[in-house]
Amino acid sequence: MNTKPDETAIVVKGLNHWFGTGEARKQAIYDVDLSFRRGSLTVLMGPSGSGKTTFLTLIGCLRDVMDGSVQLLGHELNGASTATNEMLRRRSGFIFQAHNLHESLSAIQNVMMGLQVHGRGIDKRQTREAAAHILGLVGLADRVEYLPGNLSGGQKQRVAVARALVGNPEVVFADEPTAALDRESGMNVVKILKRLGAERGTTTIMVTHDGRILEQADRIVTLEDGRVVGKSDAAP
Predict the structure, then answer these.
(1) CB burial class (10 A; 0-12, 13-18, 19+) of residue 226?
(2) Distance (Å, rounded) from C-alpha 207 to C-alpha 178?
(3) Burial (CB count <10 Å: 0-12, 13-18, 19+), residue 193
(4) CB within 8 A of 233, min separation 6: which ones?
(5) Which of 40, 150, 201, 202 is such that its CA lies 20 to 30 A from the CA of 190?
(6) pTM for the model
(7) Secondary structure (3-state) at 61
(8) Apex 77 CA angle, 72 and 80, nearest 5
(9) 68 with 14: CB under 8 angstroms?
């Protein structure tokens, strides 16, 4: 993909990764070269065990880069300091299959924690207003005070999505974010991500097996056995 440096959020060159040591050492990622344009939505496809989640955690600075180069928002991750990794995580949003909500906090309190993690210097009233707004966008305006134990699995996942997006991250890393959602809720989440890309330049990299999302993607990357075996621009 031909992009100018200021149009590129992530550049990956010669990325390799292994798990284990000695005779048990197994390579999981093989010589991956990819770049991700600012504001784009890229879907990572591939069978289970193909390396999609491993790749996502490497470029999202949740796992140390062993070999090769990953530049996230202009910062090299190979050999990056703890402070650099923490700064980049604050500029990113993460959505995983497991919602990881705090069971003792209400939906709005869980989302407010997302702003606290991002270190945004706004007062409690503004934090609450921002959390309530994003919960409304994901269809939970009438559930803001509910504890996770009183929410369905799909509603919990939508709270997790709201928490990831409330801080207006520059990059969103999403691992099967719509797996627990019905079609309408899932498409609503993807449309929010698309709108953030268009309006704010938010870059989204999403692992999914959900074929409903493909029509919304700007690009589809297919991994198999830790290797990129296909790259295609989605049909308009």
Answers:
(1) buried
(2) 10
(3) buried
(4) 218, 219, 220
(5) 150
(6) 0.89
(7) coil
(8) 130
(9) yes
Structure tokens at 84: 């650099």
Number of H helices, E strands in the chain: 6, 10
Q: In tens digits, what is the pLDDT along the chain, a chain of 236 residues?
A: 444 445 899 999 999 999 999 889 999 999 999 999 999 999 999 999 999 999 999 999 999 999 999 999 999 999 999 999 999 999 999 998 778 899 999 999 999 988 876 655 567 888 899 999 999 989 999 999 999 999 998 899 899 999 999 988 999 999 988 887 888 888 888 888 998 899 999 999 999 888 888 888 999 999 999 999 998 875 44
Question: Distance (Å, rounded) from C-alpha 190 to C-alpha 66?
Answer: 32
Eight-state DSSP code of residue 99: -
Residue in the block written with tokens 């369905």: 152
